[in-house]
Design brief:
Blueprint (H helix, E strand, L loop, with lengths): L1 H13 L7 H64 L6 H96 L2 H24 L4 H4 L11 H22 L2 H5 L17 H8 L8 H12 L19
Length: 325
């Protein structure tokens, strides 16, 4: 600053044209000298402040460096302590990799959950549709079952009425056949009539004995037999011996030969009444002329009537898809 002021003063002194009044120059020089002193003082104070600030800044930087060094040392000590306490501690890279894997797994599970929810909604829709179809099928089945049960009831009633009608007609037919047989027997020749009468009586007695052994068949077969006439003692003994011999032959025919000749104890014989021919068939065979032209049809009728006591399955003409009764 002083150098600049000196140059300015020299320039003024070197140019006399510009500095005509000397008094003004002296005044300016005095004011500039005073300003220069003030500026020097200000500059000195500023330099002192800058120096102080530099010292403070250096002290602060030194303290910060010391603090950073202390923190680094402390971090190193803590890391060494963690390594000593947890030797298998994962590194940061491994932790980051695990975090990434966990995030990917969560994303996959979220996608899977969305897909499973869609499948669950579809399965619920299918289940509701199946439930509706099952309820509809159940309703149709119950209606069909009700209809068939009603039809079965009607058919069973009709069958019962037909059975009653058939039984009545058969009873009347058998009564008429017995009356016709008795009339023809009384009007036939004497020797043939006696032989046929004897045979008929024997067969009637055998039939009565067989029917006495059967439980529940007496009521249905008593009306087919005519009352036997009185027999002499000699005839009864002969008939008894004949019946015994016939029964023995039937028993021998029923029992197999290997059972009789084998050393094992033979089993009891079954009921022979099941193998005996009923009286009405024998009477029909003995009196063939009594039959009319449609005898074959009547014989078939008798066979059907004889088997009426055995429960059989009757097909009432059930259509396709319906249960036969």
């Amino acid at each position: 600053m002083t150098d600049a002021l000196e140059r300015i003063s020299l320039q003024y002194h070197a140019n006399p044209k510009t500095n005509q009044p000397s008094t003004s120059v002296h005044r300016f020089c005095r004011g500039s000298a005073m300003d220069a002193g003030r500026l020097e003082q200000q500059v000195a104070s500023v330099e002192r402040g800058i120096t102080f600030l530099k010292q403070e800044h250096l002290a602060m930087l030194t303290g910060l460096q010391l603090e950073i060094t202390h923190l680094k040392r402390r971090c190193h000590e803590l890391s060494c302590e963690l390594d000593s306490r947890f030797p298998d501690r994962n590194t940061e890279a491994e932790l980051v990799a695990r975090c990434d894997a966990a995030e990917r797994l969560l994303q996959d599970q979220h996608c899977m959950l969305v897909a499973v929810r869609g499948e669950l909604r579809a399965s619920r829709a299918r289940a509701s549709a199946l439930g509706r179809s099952l309820r509809e099928e159940e309703r149709c089945f119950l209606e069909e079952l009700k209809r068939r049960s009603h039809k079965i009831t009607l058919l069973s009633r009709e069958l019962q009425r037909q059975n009653v009608t058939t039984t009545t007609l058969c009873h009347e037919l058998h009564t008429a056949r017995l009356k016709l047989f008795q009339q023809q027997q009384s009007s036939g020749s004497a020797p043939e009539g006696e032989e046929e009468e004897a045979r008929g009586k024997e067969e009637e007695e055998e039939e009565e004995e067989d029917e006495d052994d059967e439980d529940g068949e007496g009521e249905s077969t008593d009306w087919l037999l005519s009352p036997p006439p009185p027999v002499s003692p000699s005839q009864s003994e002969a008939r008894q011996r004949m019946r015994i011999s016939v029964r023995e032959e039937r028993v021998r025919a029923c029992v197999p030969q290997e059972r009789v000749t084998s050393p094992q104890q033979p089993h009891p014989m079954p009921d022979p009444a099941l193998f005996l021919v009923p009286l009405r068939y024998r009477l029909l065979r003995m009196h063939q002329p009594v039959r009319s032209q449609d005898g074959e049809g009547l014989e078939d009728e008798w066979e059907d009537i004889d088997d009426s006591r055995v429960p059989r399955r009757v097909d009432m003409g059930a259509g396709e898809g319906e249960t036969a009764l």
